[in-house]
Specification:
rod-shaped; Immunoglobulin-like; alpha+beta; 717 residues; 7-stranded antiparallel beta sheet; 20% helix; 5 domains; Rossmann fold; 42 strands
């Protein structure tokens, strides 16, 4: 009947337009009342849907590399929109007029273009709708694509192939005017399945500037005829001053409603004032959507997808988390009382902007709470909130004392609460009871710091001490002083020996407060201790420290020299000595070409010639060596002396010639044995005295001779 009226009531006068519109509305009411007792129903009203399972949720811990950790709590939206008995044929009608090349704000410079945004949104819609197809019901939803500018074109017949549909969308380009009438006519004429519901999604960024129906010639500009191939259309291409372009489009929109098809009109970006009127005039005012940017266009398409199918999704989602206060603290910005929150939204692994604004998380009494309120989570979108935490001092202290790898939980209990919302076209949404899930409780491995304790053994000249001087092992005690000044004198004990190269590494604690470590040892008096400065370890990551002890062997030098003097001295003689020292057992010293070897009893023998000296270097300090000259005294008057430092000892011929020589730390102890040998005659005079007697005798004899001569002279002889 509506088509008949269109033919009989040609556009000749604005008054006829009003009459025609009133009659058409009346007929529509009659038809609706007489033939359609119930309103047009959406596809999913009769759908058999699968219930929605619990949302995917995950809590992760990421090491930031600086001793802090990023805690991320996420939840992924999902929805069930499937049917096993009912089908939907969806026709997307897309504006390709030249204005679709503009930016979203109506200029040529802002990117992305309206067309680019629309392509992305349509492809997402296709993904959403065709995901309802299953193995058991592979064509529950079919899609087709109609585009229009000066006239309309069927770019893609009905298909269930998502890639094929999206490839077609990706290849679109924009030019020409805006012919709503032809676009809606072509969409309405497409062959759909008898048992399916038909949905036409009409998308345009501007009011109509062309039409198919002349409607009587009244204005050269607005009724100008244009042709392109087999297509003939009317209008100026940039205006609709006499309203014919819109009028005839609205007639087709009304016929779509009469055919029991659902029409969605989506006005995008530009001057779309008449798009809402189109939905109203078609009797589907509730199916109008306005989209001024990419986000609102995505939301519009999401709402349309939800309308086409029964949609079950998540809402009233709330994430809460409380830290494990025994071991974990929040990282707070300077002068802040709450952690800093960051948010991420991902779809198919890529960054995504949700269609609805997302509220911020809150922090109260040590608890993180992210309440998403009435937002319905979008399918396939993961919503995540993150904040940073750090381990406290107790975690580091306990980890250092643990026998194995020490892990701690980051939280006491993290929970996700939600409701399921079911939307069916024409009905109020239904909500499930609130459900609560717990997040898996991740752990972090607490870093353990290391303290290396080492020992080096040196002589006083800096050279390495002889291994024979070293003890079998040495126990070193590590002392810990914490940030409060509390001291643990026996925090660790380590045993150092040649087998571990006099080095051992132990687990210690660093942490935010830090600890200071120092060492003590039980070395002998023969060694001078060189203890290092204490090592303070502070930090949230694993730290390393050292305590390198240097023990210097306290040594001195002993020299032993033999000298012979006197008129009876035989400088070619050699002299034997015996050295005894408890503590030098099995020690060997070298002095030029001589080797002085102490046996297992601590005795050594050495033979010296006149004016010869031996030197024993690196003799342990405070060592006393008993030195005895064992050579017999020659057959002469011999006096033997031994000088030790500034002290001289004189020995008789038959007395043991023994002295004690003590080596001092860093000093030289000189020992000199001297033999004074003289020849003694039987008269008891020694050679010197006898010589003087002879000379005296000669002198006396000479004097007597001179005296006798003088007497004879005086007597005249």
């Amino acid at each position: 009947m509506r088509l008949l009226m269109k033919k009989t009531l040609e556009w000749t006068h604005p008054a006829l337009h009003l009459v025609q519109k009133a009659l058409m509305a009346a007929v529509a009411i009659i038809v609706a009342v007489g033939l359609f007792v119930s309103p047009v129903t959406a596809f999913a009203e009769n759908a058999s849907t699968t219930d929605l399972t619990a949302p995917t949720h995950e809590k992760t811990v990421t090491d930031n590399g600086d001793g802090t950790y990023k805690i991320t709590l996420g939840v992924t939206g999902n929805s069930v929109q499937s049917s096993t008995t009912t089908h939907a044929d969806v026709i997307v009608v897309m504006d390709l007029s030249r204005s679709m090349n503009y930016g979203q704000w109506g200029d040529y410079y802002t990117r992305p273009s309206r067309l680019s945004v629309a392509k992305s949104a349509v492809n997402s819609l296709a993904d959403e709708l065709l995901s309802n197809n299953t193995i058991d019901n592979p064509d529950a939803v079919r899609l087709s694509l109609v585009t229009f500018s000066d006239y309309a074109t069927v770019n893609k017949e009905f298909t269930t192939d998502l890639d094929d549909f999206q490839d077609t969308v990706d290849g679109l380009s924009a030019t020409g005017g805006t012919n709503w009438e032809d676009a809606l006519t072509v969409a309405n004429s497409m062959k759909t399945r008898d048992a399916s519901h038909t949905y036409i999604i009409f998308v345009s960024d501007g009011n109509p500037t062309f039409r198919n129906t002349l409607g009587g010639y009244t204005d050269y500009r607005e009724d100008r005829e244009s042709t392109s191939g087999s297509h003939t259309y009317y209008g100026s291409g940039n205006s609709d001053d006499n309203g014919k372009n819109y009028y005839y489009a609205s007639q087709v929109a009304s016929s779509i409603t009469d055919a029991d098809k659902i029409l969605f009109s989506v006005g995008v970006f530009g001057n779309v004032s008449r798009m809402q009127q189109l939905a109203s005039d078609a009797g589907q005012a509730g199916n109008y959507y306005s989209a001024s940017d990419q986000t609102s266009l995505n939301q519009a398409f999401q709402n349309i997808a939800n309308t086409i199918t029964t949609n079950i999704s998540y809402t009233n989602v709330k994430i809460e988390d409380t830290l494990n206060s025994t071991y974990v603290d929040y990282v707070l910005p300077t002068n802040a009382s709450a952690p800093e929150f960051t948010y991420s939204y991902k779809k198919n692994g890529a960054d995504y902007t949700p269609t609805s604004p997302i509220p911020s998380a809150s922090f109260t009494d040590g608890k993180v709470s992210w309440d998403l309120g009435s937002i319905e989570l979008e399918k396939g979108v993961t919503y995540a909130v993150s904040f940073n935490v750090k381990l406290n001092q107790k975690a580091y202290d306990d980890a250092a004392n643990a026998e194995d790898i020490f892990k701690v939980y980051t939280n006491s209990t993290g929970t996700l609460s939600y409701r399921k919302i079911t939307r069916v076209t024409g009905q109020e949404p239904k909500y499930s009871d609130q459900k609560t899930l717990e997040y898996d409780n991740p752990q972090v491995t607490v870093p353990v710091s290391k303290l290396t304790v080492s020992k080096s053994w040196k002589n006083s000249d800096g050279t390495d001490a002889d291994s024979s001087l070293l003890p079998d092992a040495l126990v070193v005690t590590v002392k810990q002083t914490n940030a409060k000044g509390e001291i643990n004198d026996t925090y660790r004990t380590v045993t150092l020996n040649a087998a571990n190269n006099w080095t051992s590494t132990v687990n210690v604690s660093a942490g935010p407060g830090g600890n200071t470590y120092s060492v003590t040892e039980n070395t002998t008096d023969a060694w001078a201790q060189g203890l290092p400065n204490a090592a303070k370890l502070t930090g949230l990551t694993a730290q390393t420290g050292t305590q390198a002890i240097t023990n210097t062997y306290r040594t001195g030098t002993l020299t032993l020299k033999k000298m012979t003097k006197g008129n009876a001295a035989n400088t070619s003689d050699s002299f034997k000595f015996e050295l005894n020292c408890a503590g030098l057992e099995n020690k060997t010293f070298t002095s030029e070409d001589k080797t002085i070897a102490f046996d297992g009893t601590g005795k050594a023998e050495v033979e010296l010639s006149n004016d010869e000296t031996i030197t024993l270097n690196n003799v342990p300090a405070d060592t006393t060596i008993v030195i005895t000259e064992t050579s017999t005294t020659p057959n002469a008057k011999t006096t033997t002396t031994a000088k030790v430092g500034d002290t001289t000892t004189t020995f008789t011929r038959d007395e043991p010639k023994t002295v004690n020589a003590t080596v001092t730390d860093g000093g030289t102890t000189d020992v000199v044995y001297t033999n004074q040998a003289e020849i003694v005659p039987d008269t008891g005079l020694d050679i010197f005295t006898a010589s003087q007697g002879v000379l005296l005798g000669v002198a006396v004899a000479g004097a007597a001779t001179l005296a006798a001569a003088a007497i004879r002279k005086n007597h005249g002889e």
